[in-house]
Design brief:
The chain has 191 residues and is mostly helical. It contains eleven helices and no strands.
Length: 191
Amino acid sequence: MLSKLPALPKNKPIDLYIGSNLYIYLKHRDGWAFTVLYNNYSSILRVIIRKIVKCEYITEDILQETFFKISRFIDNYDPKIGQLSTWVSCVARNCAIDELRSRAYINNLKNIRIDDHFDEVEYKCNTVVNVDAIGLKELLRFLPLAQAEIIILIYFRGYTQCEIADKFHLPLSTIKSRVRMSMIKLRKLFL
């Protein structure tokens, strides 16, 4: 990976690599010349790419692709036409634009990340129904006392069916049957 390039060696003068000489070393595939190129241009290229794609993790991928293309197509650079910095910036810009036009990027935009909408969904799903507003407490008077008491404990006090079975010393199946019968009767009364 290009971000882990070694430091420049002490035995080669850096000024050989800077300025108009740098592209000569790049054309000869000098590894240290690519290190100098990366150290001098990576931050500005990252900014150029980031302004186009607006996504940090994609920016890093495109930056790596940019330096790959620079190393592959360095022979296309002509110092008579323009400066190395301009050519390198154009390669980065073109890589970013290619990414924007790619099918993978377009599909990624179509996919909605669940993390971005989790709070919205959670808010809509956690709406509290006001039981008094629908008149459920009033409908409980139409139930037998044993069934009404179980419904009150489950839906208004937060008991589980197992806790109610233990409290009344009844089998769990009896509690489940009473809850089911109560729900059927309340549904008929409510609708």
